[in-house]
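debug: dumping io for the single-chain case to check the tokenizer round-trip. Nothing else runs in this session.
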Amino acid sequence: MPPVPDVDDFSFQEPISGDTLLLDDLQNVLGSFIANLQQLLANPPLADNAVFLGHVALDLEGLSRILMRISQATDSERFKTVGEIVHNILMQTLEVVGIRDRDVSLASATAAFDPQNPLSSDLHKILLNFLQFSEQTLIMVHELQFLQEDLIEE
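debug: decoded output
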């Protein structure tokens, strides 16, 4: 087992700010969501995979939590702006085949997601719509990638 470093060995390091932790969290979860969307577009049967749906739901739930923390905790205008844009994407009302009697968004579909019945969820229907309208979904993926790159420059 390697020796434990002396506390003085870390004196040159600056403390990690709350913004840095939030930024890392946002980059990681946003990156995971982007990767899941790319996988979905490359492999459409994933839309009917309960485990995959669960991963997407966890990413979206994580994004929602991080965005809530960003809106309350950061002083960085660019960071807040990126957070607001991602929040708007999650909250945007979607027209989804099979859901006509109410408004649905990625956020509301995630909040209502039942891991016991993933294939009857609104999130499942949204992912099927993403496949049906793959060009628009790809545009959204590119926008999210651009926002993620903007975070890296932060």
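debug: round-trip ok. The helical segments are 18-42, 50-73, 77-91, 106-111, 122-132, 134-153.
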